[in-house]
Amino acid sequence: MAVPFNIFVSPLSFKGSLKNSHFFSSWHSATPHCNWVGVMCQLGRVTSLSLPSRYLKGNLSLSLTSLSFLTILNLEDNQFFGEIPGDVGRLLNLKTLRLGSNSFSGKIPSEFGVLTKLHTLDLSGNALAGEIPESIGNLTNLQFLDLSNNILSGSLPVEIGSAVILQRLVLSNNRLKGNISIELGDCVSLTTLDLGNIYKALGMPQEAIACYQHALQTRPNYGMAYGNLANEKEIKTATGSMSRPKVWCVCFFFSLISLFIIRN
């Protein structure tokens, strides 16, 4: 049974109304908040709030003035709905934000762009719509970005190329279109690129086409070309996987070890 959740307003005020409150049995005034389930502290300050898969339900209503030292916020795999509040952008020390597998709607807040310490952002498995905000290019410390399984539209912003240490980019099952900008090639640390079934709608930059054509000539049975993957170890498709090709050329992505596409 889903648990109503409004933690940031007053965790104690709603506890009595919970129909399935055993997860929060430690949440009472007689127990230090640093000992509450899902809460971690340093020097008495809350630095981590991790409550994945707790059947929590409701809007994410945030009052963040007392959580300025939060570095980890993990609420994935619950039943949150409504818009993600822009006030999340006030968590300036945040390094990990996991809100995947909920029912959030609306747009990705542009305020995320001020979370410059963020290295993990998972918003997958929601109902987020609209374009990916250009401000995401401000997240120069980002290493993992998963926006899959939403209804995002528009093109991939060129600003994402600023995330030069990005290692995993997952965009599958959206409504993105337009060309993938060559700036994505600036993500020289990228090891996993998951385009799923959207790679044909996105298109690829001209600089990579020659590599693709070469690979198609040498390995015609694999549909999409893999010649651009200089250091790949495995390429995953909807029909299985294959080991390192014997022939490839070096361009575009230089560290990619895993590419996932769905072949029609």
UniProtKB/TrEMBL annotation:
Keywords: Glycoprotein, Leucine-rich repeat, Membrane, Receptor, Repeat, Signal, TPR repeat, Transmembrane, Transmembrane helix. TPR repeats lie at residues 189-222. It is found in: Membrane. Its main location: membrane. Gene3D superfamilies: Ribonuclease Inhibitor, Tetratricopeptide repeat domain. The lineage of its organism: Eukaryota, Viridiplantae, Streptophyta, Embryophyta, Tracheophyta. Residues 59-195 form the Disease resistance R13L4/SHOC-2-like LRR domain. Pfam families: LRR_14, LRRNT_2. GO terms for cellular component: membrane. Residues 12-41 form the Leucine-rich repeat-containing N-terminal plant-type domain. It comes from Vicia faba (Broad bean). PROSITE patterns: TPR. It is a single-pass type I membrane protein. This is Uncharacterized protein.
